[in-house]
Amino acid sequence: MFDCGFGIRDIHQRLKRVGCQPEELDAVFITHEHGDHANGILPLAKRYGIPLWMSNGTFQGMGKDFSEVDLNFCRDGDCIEIGSLKVTAFTTSHDAREPLQFHLTDGVSKIGMLTDTGQVTPHIQRELSACHLLLLECNYDEGMLRTSHYPEHLKRRIRSVYGHLSNDDAASFLMEVDRSCLRAVVACHLSQNNNLADYARKAIEEAVSRHGIQVMVADQENGTDWIDV
Ligand SMILES: [Zn+2]
Ligand SMILES: [Zn+2]
């Protein structure tokens, strides 16, 4: 599992919905210390003895007591084997201590994740080349953010190179990345105040749908079903 922003009861329900139990988790990777990614992890890891992986910076940023937890550190470029999967960490551009995102492969298919980055660096673009499935941040619609009630400093933070990707940023990335293997894109990490699922879908579809690539939008309540890649 990647990230755990929800409380333990919520996680139980969400795992159950996809036919899983917490005891079955072999590892949880935490991308960075922000609450929507890390808030629920400590009680879950403690209760079920689940191994955790995160950067040292994320550990420092969380500032929590991890004694009794099987805590492992990883950094940009590390490749970690979890069962039959190889999980690779790469650095992103975000206002956290040492944020990472991940791609993983079973030797046949490659899945890439990219959320919580204010820009797509050449390094990120290389790491996410030739994915079969991409989970891609579509955080905000430019127009909605411009007219939203958010204070100016928060708008600047979201738009900055250490903030988040807009729908248009995500679409530009998709037009530039090596998508020779790409079968599906899941738009995710949509802002509840500054985006609409239809806007995110439209931006991503304009970038890739003519290439026969399936487009889905994950909403915060329901996520997505299992996806075959
Ligand atoms: Zn986030
Ligand atoms: Zn964040």
Describe this structure in words.
With 229 residues, the protein is an alpha/beta fold. The chain has 2 domains: 1-76, no CATH class; 109-223. It is built from 9 helices and 10 strands. The strands form 2 sheets. It has a 7-stranded mixed β-sheet with strand order 4-5-6-7-8-9-10. A 3-stranded parallel β-sheet has the order 1-2-3. Strand 7, helix 5 (122-127) and strand 8 form a beta-alpha-beta unit. Helix 8 (167-176) packs parallel to helix 9. The longest helix has 12 residues, at 197-208. It is globular, with a radius of gyration of 17 Å. The mean pLDDT is 96. Bound molecules: zinc ion (2 copies).
Q: How do the strands line up in the largest sheet?
A: 4-5-6-7-8-9-10
How would you characterize the largest beta sheet? 7 strands, mixed
Q: How many independent structural domains?
A: 2
Number of helices: 9
Low-confidence stretches: none
Q: What is the tally of beta strands?
A: 10
Q: Taking all residues together, what is the mean pLDDT?
A: 96
**Helix share of residues?**
25-40%
Bound ligands? zinc ion
The coarse silhouette is globular
Query: What structural class results from the helix and strand content?
Result: alpha/beta
* Rg estimate, integer Å: 17 Å
